[in-house]
Amino acid sequence: MDRDLLKQYLEFYRDLGVKSVFVEPRTARASAAPSVVAAPAVVTPKVPAPVPPAPRIEVPAMSGPTEMPKLFASDFPVSPDNDSLVKIQEDMGDCQRCRLCKGRKTIVFGSGNDRARLVFVGEGPGADEDAQGLPFVGRAGQLLTQMIDNTSGKEGFAIRRPDVYICNVVKCRPPENRAPEPDEMEICGQFLSRQLMVLKPRAICALGGTASKALLGTKEGITKLRGKWHMWREIPVMPTYHPSYLLRPTSGQTAKREAWEDLKKVLHYVYDDPPRPLSDF
Ligand code: URA
Q1: What pLDDT was estimated at residue 81?
Q2: What was the pLDDT predicted at 105?
C-alpha cells in the first residue's frame, strides 16, 4: 500500500480515538477487506496521548449510488485496548468528523444497560432524540418501548427497556430526517463498532434497512433480511422493521406481526434459561 494512503488511514483512526490497529495475516479475508487489513503484521501507530481535538473534515457531497461502507461491514478489528463506553464517548468529544455535526444540537450516543445482553441499533436520531440527547424517545421510540416491554412480558421475561442497550448507526441527526449517507455511516460506524465490541451482547436487533445494511454490509432490503439470523463478527443479528415504518398507516398488519415475531425470536434466544442454540430459533 502507498505510504501516504497508509498514513491517512492511521490518522483517520487516530482521530477516531483508535490507538491500535490489529492486522490479520493475508488470508481469504484479504479480498473482502480494505487492503490495509492485509498487511501481515500488527501495526501500532505512534500517537500522542491524549488524543488531540478532532480536526474538522470536509466531506464532499456524495453523488450517485455508492456501496455500503466496507470498513464497517468488514471484520476490520479496530478498537483500542481496554476500551469502554466512557472512553468512546470521550473520543467522540464534540465530534466534527462529518457534515452531520452542522445541524445537530446533541450527540446521541446511546442509552440503557451497559451490561445488556441485547442491543438494538437504529438509523439515527430524529428531532426528539436530538433535543433530549437520548435515542428512541419520540413516537418511534415509544413504540419500540412498547414492543420490548409487551413482548417480553407476554413471553414471561422480566426484561424491560432499561435492561437492553439502544443506539444508532449515526449519532447526529441527519437534516430533514434523511437517511445517513454511506460516508457518514462509515465515519460514525467506527464508534458503533466499538460500542458493540465493548458491550459484546448475545444478540443485536437491527431496526430497519439502514441499520441492517450498515451492520451486514449488504444492499439487500429489509423485507429479505428480516426474520433470519445474520452475523456481525461473532454476534447474531436479527434485522426487523424500523418502528417508524410500523407507525405508517400503509405498513399493514403483516409487517407488524412479523416485527413482533422477530422480536420474540430475539428475546427467546437471548434470555431463555437454559440458553438454547441459535439454530433453535
Ligand atoms: N429513529 C432512529 O433510527 N433512531 C432514533 O433514535 C429515533 C428514531
Answers
A1: 84
A2: 97
| Res 25 pLDDT > 90 | no
pLDDT, residue 51, reads 47
Pocket lining: 245 vs ligand 1, CB cutoff 6 Å: no
Residue 136 near ligand 1, beta carbon < 6 Å: yes
Mean pLDDT, range 169-179, rounded to an integer:
96
Q: How far is the CA of 22 from the centre of ligand 1 (A)?
A: 32
Looking at the domain 73-280, which fold is it? Uracil-DNA Glycosylase, subunit E (3.40.470)
Give residue 170 CA to ligand 1 midpoint distance, Å: 10
Report CA(122)–ligand 1 centroid distance (Å). Answer: 5
- Mean per-residue pLDDT, 219-224: 96
For residue 28, pLDDT over 50 is answered with no
Per-domain residue ranges of the chain:
1-67, 73-280
Q: Ligand 1 in contact with 110 (CB < 6 A)?
A: no
Instruction: Tell me, using a 6 A CB cutoff, whether residue 125 lines ligand 1.
Output: yes
247 alpha carbon to ligand 1 midpoint, in Å? 13
Question: What is the 3-class SS of the chain, one letter each residue?
Answer: CCHHHHHHHHHHHHHCCCCCECCCCCCHHHHCCCHHHHCCCCECCCCCCCCCCCCCCCCCCCCCCCCCCHHHHCCCCECCCCCCHHHHHHHHCCCCCCHHHHCCCCCCCCEECCCCCEEEEECCCCHHHHHHCCCCCCHHHHHHHHHHHHHHHHCCCCCCHHHCEEEECCCCCCHHHCCCCHHHHHHHHHHHHHHHHHHCCCEEEEEHHHHHHHHHCCCCCHHHHCCCCEEECCEEEEEECCHHHHHCHHHHHHHHHHHHHHHHHHHHHHHCCCCCCHHHC
Mean pLDDT across the chain:
82
